[in-house]
Write a structure and sequence with these properties.
Elements (H helix, E strand, L loop, with lengths): L2 H7 L2 E7 L7 E6 L19 E4 L21 H16 L13 H10 L16 H12 L3 E6 L3 H18 L4 E5 L6 E9 L2 E7 L10 H6 L3 E5 L9 E6 L6
Antiparallel strand pairs: 1-2, 3-6, 4-9, 5-6, 5-9, 6-7, 7-8
Helix pairs in contact: 2-4
């Protein structure tokens, strides 16, 4: 079976992004159908959790190169925003009673330029975005405000402030959360939090995967969606949480 036939059989389209030398050809694969609800079936990290709060509703898993654009090394924040936007498409009913598909990387950049948050040179660049930009983008495209929570570095802040905020968010809002920091500047999608007597775990969906669509069980086996101990986070990094506020005001 030829390379293009194998890609088609795996549900992908080949996109040749070239390279500076003949031996450095990079083949990106555009995923035809993104994986849904990739955390389903993942066992609990604790046998008897004191409290476990999870995302409510459906979403799609966006990751590096899933649309054929080679964004490795800079696009993780954009992909997490797209995952969050896919949840809004499935679960959020806007006031104008219409929805739109998750914005492309180019649309996200152009929106930030239009809002005046970024200069014109940002559009078409490879500059990354964080939780603050994520909040602007979701409000711009979906009219959804986001709560931003700053978590200072250190185990106590992460284990208590971050975990408490996440429990409250998933119980009331149910939407995915974006997490990013300074020393640990890799964007993370947070889909749940589980607390036991000896600490807490975060349910992390990692946007850094690059390749053809995998079965959910394989994504879980490879660790692209996994429960991570809060204590395993960089204790010297601060973290920010971007939490879409979709619950109806009482």
């Amino acid at each position: 079976m030829k390379m293009d036939e194998r890609a088609a059989a795996a549900g992908c389209e080949q996109v040749d992004w070239g390279g500076s030398e003949p031996g450095e050809r990079i083949i990106m694969k555009k995923t035809k159908a993104l994986s849904n609800n990739v955390h389903v079936g993942l066992p609990s990290p604790l046998p008897d959790p004191v409290n476990c709060s999870l995302i409510k509703g459906d979403y799609r898993y966006f990751h590096y190169g899933c649309d054929g654009q080679d964004d490795r090394g800079w696009g993780c924040g954009y992909r997490t925003v797209q995952t969050m936007a896919s949840w809004l498409c499935c679960n959020w009913t806007p006031q104008q009673n219409k929805t739109r598909s998750p914005p492309s990387l180019q649309e996200i950049q152009q929106a930030l330029v239009t809002m005046g948050d970024k200069p014109a040179s940002f559009s078409g660049s490879r500059e990354w975005i964080g939780t603050f930009e994520a909040s602007l983008v979701l409000d711009y495209f979906y009219d959804v405000p986001c709560k931003l929570v700053h978590i200072r570095g250190g185990g106590a802040e992460l284990e208590h402030v971050a975990v408490q905020e996440l429990h409250q968010h998933f119980e009331k809002q149910g939407s995915p959360v974006m997490m990013g920091g300074d020393r640990d500047n890799s964007s993370k999608g947070i889909l749940g939090v589980c607390t036991g007597d000896k600490g807490s775990y975060l349910l992390v969906v990692d946007p850094h995967y690059c390749g053809c669509q995998l079965e959910n069980t394989e994504l879980q086996r490879r660790g692209w969606v996994a429960w991570k101990r809060v204590s395993s986070l960089d204790q010297s990094s601060f973290y920010n949480l971007c939490m879409p506020q979709t619950a109806k005001q009482e």
